[in-house]
Automatic annotation (TrEMBL):
Any one GO MF annotation of this record: DNA binding
Domain named Tyr recombinase: residues: 202-376
Phylogenetic lineage: Bacteria, Pseudomonadati, Pseudomonadota, Betaproteobacteria, Burkholderiales
Family as reported in the entry's similarity comment: Belongs to the 'phage' integrase family.
InterPro entries linked to this entry: DNA_brk_join_enz, Integrase-like_cat_sf, Integrase_catalytic, Integrase_DNA-bd_sf, Integrase_DNA_bind_dom, Integrase_recombinase_N, Phage_Integrase
SUPFAM superfamilies in alphabetical order: DNA breaking-rejoining enzymes
Originating organism: Castellaniella defragrans (strain DSM 12143 / CCUG 39792 / 65Phen) (Alcaligenes defragrans)
Key words, A-Z: DNA integration, DNA recombination, DNA-binding
Coiled coil: none
This protein's record includes keyword DNA-binding: yes
GO biological process: DNA integration; DNA recombination
Pfam families: Arm-DNA-bind_3, Phage_integrase
Protein name per UniProt: Mobile element protein
Amino acid sequence: MPVQKLSDTLVATLACPPGRAHLEYCDTLMRGLYVDVLANGRMAFRIRYRQGGRKRVHTLGDARLLTVAEARDRARTALRKVIAGGDPKAADQPIDGPTIEHFYTQHYLPYVKSYKRSWGTDETIIRNHLLPALGERAMGSLIPPDIARVVESMRSRNYASGTINRVLVLLRYGYTLALRWRTDGVEGNPAKELKNLKENNKIERYLSPQQTTRLLTAVHASQNSMLAPIIAMLLLTGARKREALDARWQDVDWRQKLWRIPKTKSGKARHVPLSSGALDLLRKLRETSDPGTETIFVNPRTGQPFVSIFYSWDTARKQAGVPALRIHDLRHSFASFLVNAGRSLYEVQELLGHADIRTTSRYAHLSRERLREAVEVVAGHCPVVP
């Protein structure tokens, strides 16, 4: 942690050393002030202080936009707030209301954490995209062109349309909450003026029978002894990865041949029919599992559900010759197996637990291929050309 007198000239030359995630350069003139230089090239002025017996950090702003003198002024104001027993994040509340950073970190995140299972995704988007671009702006000062510039900047850096759309959705929802909570300075929702970018969500990746065989061979050879049954369960049920990793024995109804998934993406429990293959798989696991074990797929190292199986999965898919295959593609493959076997989209919808048939319609082209094969059968029996 280098300590030296910060200057605009010095800050312009700072860089993060190779192999480091970030490096802090502390100022000798303002105690607690430092520049945090990240490996991705971003720099931020921050202050470190103690409050309530705990070490805390407050971001003052982008070091590429603020001068050192401005950073010291902000640090001085914030530290005075700390001495007075206040919150430095509210030290400079402008007439246009709280800053984007203050609103999303102090109000939005605590709220969504109370009910949203995927709040971690929101936190990542806020930290990586929203705060670097707009964090210092007041909520009430933002206008649609400001957000449009963020979108264009992300597009120029080749971010996926889906990532950009998540930023837009998060901004829209944040401003909706700000209006509902009558946040100072917020009189409208500037994000509503911008449309989401078009995304190419067409699913093209399905396992062929040959690829399925190679994949199953690879997972059975994995050093992770639980990888093979996990992948087999996903292929046999079309479940999502987290649903399988969190599966419990108490949710298996052997008599009715059903697996109850208490927590799904929609927030509602659903029941998955278990085929004879899935039941055989579960019986073998039951025979070898400890009697007191609640989790079906136990991590042998921890005795708990797996947090991640990426590394063993990544090794297996490469060995199987399908390095681009995602675990979620096993769910798509399950659907394709059903459609190619002549099952209706309605049946696929029910088995996958889709609330809207439009989600299942992505597999409609597979059904059309089967219809073309069907009409060829008729053509073979009705030659019209002598």
